[in-house]
Write a structure and sequence with these properties.
The complex is a heterotrimer of chains A (286), B (161) and C (764). With 286 residues, chain A is α+β, with helices and mostly antiparallel strands. Chain A has helices at residues 12-19, 33-40, 79-83, 86-91, 93-99, 105-110, 113-119, 126-132, 228-234, 241-254, 265-283; strands at residues 5-7, 26-29, 48-51, 62-64, 70-74, 136-141, 144-149, 154-156, 159-160, 167-174, 180-186, 197-206, 209-218, 225-226. The longest helix of chain A has 19 residues, at 265-283. Chain C has three domains: 19-28 and 464-588, Aldehyde Oxidoreductase, domain 4 (2-Layer Sandwich), CATH 3.30.365.10; 33-133 and 207-288, Alpha-Beta Complex (Aldehyde Oxidoreductase, domain 3), CATH 3.90.1170.50; 297-461 and 598-756, Aldehyde oxidase/xanthine dehydrogenase, molybdopterin binding domain (Aldehyde Oxidoreductase, domain 4, 2-Layer Sandwich), CATH 3.30.365. The chains are: A alpha+beta (286), B alpha+beta (161), C alpha+beta (764).
Chain lengths: 286, 161, 764
């Protein structure tokens, strides 16, 4: 790779200055895994990388807000830090569950929450999980700060709504003790693989009834996608085969699933039908 | 222009320095500047584990990590484990279990198993399988590697007792 | 020679001699080699599968600071006037010569002192192509007007290929035939005739140490340091290319980080040699993992098998039509076609057999040898077919096999009698470990369970030669000089055990000198399960020769019969000081009879028989097709296990590799372009893929009377029967048959839906 500049700002302000450029080859860097992969594959040649390792502030560490209602997770938090956290396991067990099959230990040791989101890769495991949890992201740029739901971050295949020079600072996850969540990583080529589909579900159960539900599909589609019609079938319904079948059909009908090396469109639709039902049953404890 | 820098770090217990370029990987630096051969690039994508080293006690893929950020850290490679000519218990266990054939992936596996046993001193089979999914052995000495992990755990316990 | 007797070597699970170097990372591979003044070469590859090259623009790359030179075929022709190579056909240009024949073919090379600069420069090269229609499917290629090569160019080293010389207008690189009895009459007489077709996919070896070679050419002398399984072949072929005598070409091979048949014959060696001659400097090329997929692969195979049976279930006729997709260059494909064709009727006693086996050129990456030399692809067909026949005829699958099994002394299809091949005991061993006679849990709900078995065999490349030297130094210590490459299979250790047994030395004290063609004698190659048998015999002969010379020396010194004076003392007595050597040599070539040119029949077509059997239990989710192999048993006849631990590792390692080829591995092409050429998308087995019950054993007390101490090869036997055992288990679980590898969740689900009459749309 051709030589490039690497800058290590010590504050957000310095970082924003370093990123203030019209050059699309100027990029921020979290753990650097995805960037290194792209650089080695000669898909991306940076002129300047701005490492966010040293900027501190809300970018690192994670904690429960004073009111106990929101987890604030700094964008530079590594996956291993989340994986090993007792607090996360207690309040966001689906994150701990997802970590087990996410990439491998070495990647989890360096990959960061913010970098993962900013990459916009639809095959990643965490974005659909954050989405189903109702998480929001705090974004900082030269013109100030904004907070948007995670799902609004993804606008297309490897495409995010981040403006040039903007940084993801934090992920804000509501603590919802009555909800239950699960991430189904469905692989087709080998047990350990990128998912053919990722399915993140959260439900608010009321006995046998699904009081509320959120379903997010990833990997089989160009970005993490809420399955609104399937949610509508399920919301307010009592769990039964017929409802799950209808929800599965609604999910298939509302998505645009393309054939790729992990499976044909028709097969992945079948996987969606089956795994949606299973995931809902699982979180409903049935 | 900060395209290169001098990094100062501890390599297998010795203070060292190197001039590195932005983007230079740890495995390239170890191979070309320190003539260490234990960490090897194979898949080039962080999937096979042949390039595993630890940085401040944490395993990373040497082929995907920039040497640049090693400044001020402590790096350990397969060449640095064991004491005074004696093998590390994990190395001994690998020999006793016959947990390798061609040996190309072996240092990476050993480094990773050390980290596994730090985190889970007494792992069950499923824990081992999951923990080591990021290490590939094409000779497929996998059954023997499972045995070696058990053996190494027992050796470590005995040493600690 | 010490006075105390060391433990016997044979049958001892001695740890690998190099074990310590491997766990400390110090072991030597070409991967790490750097020579003073060395240039790195980086390959610019074609991005189209079949095209005439109109122009190559290397100016921008050459102008990049730090680039030493950019090389194309024009530069190479100046140093090697006829730059075409290959083991069976001289069909492969060192760099693309006017035409590219597969996407990924090397077109130019950038040389630079810095590898990164070479990589950057490659990105600046452009080529203009006039695209030609491509041919990718082996069946279409048989009759297509699209020709991969204008003319066939067999190497003169293979007399049986000479009839193909100059043949034009065809993609068929070899048409192997075997005719035994009268197949047509057999079918006419048969009560039942079955015909099925099975396919295997293209897969790759994936050695963890990617292909790497370093050439250093100076003043008419060449030294190659290369990760090769066949240093002697490399020397001969490079000497031919350069018009040099063998003694001007030196080939050195340290340890290999895996080979599996990929690093055989000639790979990067011709290219680095040419580059070193052009640049007048040492040149190294190391492929990346992604580039490996364009080097050599395993043949896709399309096999139609037809069998005629009596109403009792006795096989009386079989026809095999086997078509091998060889890719753009023949490599050793014609030999695979022939050797696997030879046993493609399976380990059954059938009176009338006809076999047609074709090697076909296509515009895919080249295919060559891969662990089993085609036997796994043929067994996938004949053992799936076996179960299908037994099912259709309502005969127990085990009994059906026993009824038709080839037994000791009976002629195999080629007429070569079966000898020292424990086919039935392998089957019995499998049945025992599978608890075959006990009731079997067939699953419940959406989970269905099934189990299957299969048996298989293979012939061994013949006739081939191994030569060994045993050198006893003045103090009695020993070194072994052999051309066998230790690529992980443990040959150093096994050969030391054989020498130690004869010399009465502790095997662990013997030094094995690695292949260096200036030092170690000829060996045909580390391939096809041949080393333990061939080199093992040569080592044994060399050690016996040394023992004979020691006895001569004792007589010369006037020592009484039965004296056990250590060798060191004897040499001291003879030379008056610590001096001298005892050198024993051994050369081995097995008995062989050339097959008849029209019928393919021979009384001695293989030095020994490789035998493997497998049993599998599977668990399938019928709503998704998701499959788990929950139990896998592999058994092989290895004759005497010289080192039982090393044998067990070979059996288990080969089985897991074939498990990958059965379930997960598949090179997927779209319009001739590989779409999944990296380990992120080409999935080799991980620890998670290993069946929870996994048993690998050799048949106890087997013995091959021609093998060293009764031993034969062990590296491939468990690859043969594994795929059909799993396919048969799937059929047992579901009642549907998978015909094409790999067996994926989607292929299972599709087969289920098709059987229900509701086929899934838009096959990917």
């Amino acid at each position: 790779m051709a030589s490039f500049e690497l800058i290590e700002p010590q504050s957000v302000e310095e970082a924003l200055v370093a990123l203030d450029s019209d050059d699309p080859a100027v990029r921020p860097m979290g753990g650097g895994t995805a960037l290194m992969l792209m650089m080695k594959a000669q898909l991306f040649a940076p002129t300047r990388l701005v490492s966010l390792r040293g900027i501190g502030g809300g970018f690192s560490g994670f904690s429960l807000s004073g009111d106990g209602e929101t987890f604030c997770i700094g964008a530079m938090t590594t996956f291993s830090e989340l994986e090993q956290s007792v607090e996360i396991a207690r309040h966001l067990p689906v994150i701990t569950q997802t970590m087990k099959t996410l990439a491998n230990v070495r990647v989890r040791n360096v990959a960061t929450v913010g970098g993962n989101l900013a990459h916009g890769d639809p095959h990643l495991d965490l974005p659909p999980v954050w989405t189903t949890l109702g998480a929001r992201v705090r974004i900082i740029g030269q013109s100030g700060e904004r907070v948007i739901p995670v799902e609004e971050l993804f606008v297309g295949y490897y495409e995010t709504s981040l403006e040039p020079g903007e940084l993801i600072a934090q992920v804000l996850v509501p603590v919802r003790p009555d909800w239950r969540s699960f991430y189904a990583k469905v692989t087709t080529r080998a047990e350990h693989d990128w998912p053919a589909l990722g399915l993140a579900v959260s439900v608010l159960p009321e006995g046998e009834r699904i009081a509320d539900v959120s379903i997010v599909l990833s990997a089989a589609v160009d970005r993490p996608t809420r399955l609104v019609n399937a949610e509508n079938v399920l919301r307010g319904s009592v769990l039964c085969d017929e409802v799950l079948t209808r929800a599965g059909e609604a999910a298939v009908a509302e998505t645009d699933i393309e054939t790729d090396n992990r499976g044909s469109s028709a097969y992945k639709k079948q996987l969606l039908r089956v795994h949606l039902g299973r995931a809902i049953r699982k979180v409903m404890g049935a | 222009m900060s395209t290169t820098r001098t990094i100062r770090f501890t390599l297998n217990g010795r203070a060292v320095a190197a001039d590195v370029a932005a983007g230079e990987t740890i495995v390239d630096m170890l191979t070309l500047r320190f003539d260490l051969k234990g960490a090897r690039e194979s898949c080039g994508q962080g999937l096979c584990g042949c390039c595993t080293v630890t940085v401040d006690g944490m395993a990373v893929s040497g082929c995907l990590s920039m040497a640049w950020f090693l400044d001020g850290t402590s790096v350990e490679t397969i060449e640095g484990i064991g004491t005074g000519g004696a093998l590390d218990p994990v190395q001994e266990a690998f020999i006793e279990a016959g947990a390798f054939q061609c040996g190309f992936c072996t240092p990476g596996f050993i480094m990773m198993v050390r980290q596994l046993l730090d985190a889970h001193p007494d792992p069950d089979d499923e824990e081992v399988r999951h923990y080591l999914t990021g290490n590939l052995c094409r000779c497929s000495a996998y059954p023997e590697i499972l045995t070696a992990v058990k053996l190494a755990a027992a050796k470590r316990k005995k040493l600690a007792a | 020679m010490t006075a105390t007797t060391p433990a016997p070597s044979i049958g001892r699970s001695l740890p690998r001699l190099e074990a310590r170097d491997k766990v400390t990372g110090r072991v030597e591979y070409v991967h790490h080699l750097r020579l003073p003044g060395m240039l790195y070469g980086k390959i610019f590859r074609s991005n189209v599968p079949h095209a005439r090259i109109k122009s190559i623009d290397t100016a921008a790359a050459a102008a990049l600071p730090g680039v030493y030179q950019v090389v194309t075929i024009e530069d190479i022709r100046k140093v090697i006037p006829h730059p075409y190579y290959g083991p069976a056909f001289h069909d492969q240009p060192i760099l693309a010569d006017g035409k590219v024949r597969f996407a990924g073919e090397p077109v130019a090379v950038v040389l630079a002192f810095d590898r990164k600069i070479a990589e950057d420069a490659v990105a600046l090269i452009t080529a203009e192509y006039e695209e030609l229609p491509g041919i990718f499917d082996e069946i279409e290629a048989m009759t297509s007007d699209v020709l991969v090569h204008d003319e066939l160019k067999p190497a003169s080293t293979f007399p049986d290929l000479q009839h193909l010389k100059g043949r034009k207008g065809t993609n068929i690189a070899l048409d192997y035939q075997l005719r035994r009895g009268d197949t047509e009459a057999g079918f006419a007489k048969a009560d039942h005739v079955f015909e099925h077709t099975f396919c295997s996919q293209q897969v790759m070896h994936i050695p963890m140490e990617p292909f790497v070679s370093v050439a250093d050419y100076q003043d008419g002398h060449l030294t190659l340091h290369t990760a090769s399984q066949g240093p002697s072949f490399v020397r001969i072929e490079i000497a031919r290319l350069l018009g040099l005598p063998e003694n001007r070409v030196r080939v050195k091979v340290p340890f290999l980080g895996g080979g599996f048949g990929g690093k055989l014959y000639i790979k990067l060696e011709a290219l680095v040699t040419a580059l070193s001659m052009v640049a007048q400097r040492p040149v190294k090329i190391s492929l990346t993992m992604e580039e490996q997929f364009y080097m050599v692969t395993r043949h896709p195979c399309h096999f139609t098998i037809k069998s005629g049976l009596t109403k009792e279930g006795k096989l009386i006729a079989r026809h095999c039509e086997v078509i091998w997709n060889g890719g753009a260059y023949a490599d050793i494909g014609p030999r695979v076609t022939q050797k696997a064709g030879f046993t493609s009727a399976g380990p059954y006693d059938i009176e009338n057999v006809s076999i047609n086996s074709y090697a076909v050129y296509t515009n895919r990456p080249p295919c060559g040898a891969l662990r089993g030399f085609g036997a796994p692809q043929t067994a996938w067909a004949y053992e799936s077919h076996t179960d299908m026949i037994a099912e259709a005829m309502g005969i127990d699958k085990v009994e059906f096999r026993r009824m038709n099994m080839l037994r000791e002394g009976r002629p195999q299809a080629s007429g070569t009698p079966l000898r020292d091949a424990e086919i039935e005991r392998s089957l019995d061993h499998i049945l025992d470990r599978m608890n075959w006679s006990l009731p079997f849990d067939r699953g419940s709900g959406t989970i269905k369970r099934g189990r299957g078995i299969a048996i298989g065999f293979k012939g061994i490349t013949a006739p081939t030669t191994s030569v060994a030297i045993v050198n006893l130094f003045a103090d009695g210590s020993c070194a072994l000089y052999i051309g066998t490459v230790d690529m992980g299979q443990g040959s150093d250790t096994v050969m030391a055990q054989i020498a130690g047994e004869v010399l009465n030395l502790d095997a662990a004290s013997i030094k094995v000198i690695h292949p260096d063609t200036d030092v170690t004698p000829y060996d045909m190659g580390t391939l096809g399960s041949r080393s333990t048998f061939h080199m093992g015999n040569a080592v044994k002969l060399a050690a016996q020769d040394a023992m004979g010379k020691i006895a001569d020396l004792a007589r010369e010194l006037g020592l009484p019969e039965g004296a056990n004076l250590p060798l060191a003392d004897m040499l001291r007595k003879k030379y008056g000081m610590q001096a001298g050597n005892i050198i024993g040599t051994g050369s081995f070539i097995p008995d062989y009879e050339k097959p008849d040119t029209t019928t393919g029949l021979t009384k001695k077509g293989t030095p020994f028989w490789g035998v493997g059997a497998a049993g599998a239990e599977v668990e399938i989710d019928i709503e998704t097709g998701a499959i788990k192999v929950t139990k896998l048993v592999n058994v092989a006849d290895v004759g005497t296990a010289i080192n039982p631990k090393a044998v067990q590792q070979q059996l288990s390692g080969a089985a897991i590799m074939q498990l990958g080829f059965t379930m997960t591995e598949n090179m997927v092409f779209r319009d001739g372009q590989l779409t999944n050429g990296s380990l992120a998308d080409y999935k080799i087995p991980t620890l998670l893929d290993i069946p929870r019950e996994f048993i690998n054993e050799h048949v106890p007390n087997a013995y091959d009377k021609d093998g060293p101490f009764g031993a034969k090869g062990a590296g491939e036997s468990t690859t043969i029967a594994l795929s059909p055992a799993i396919g048969n288990a799937v059929a047992d679980a579901l009642g549907v048959r998978i015909h094409d590898l790999p067996i994926t969740p989607e292929s299972i689900f599709r087969a289920l839906q098709a059987a229900k009459g509701t086929p899934l749309e838009d096959c990917a």
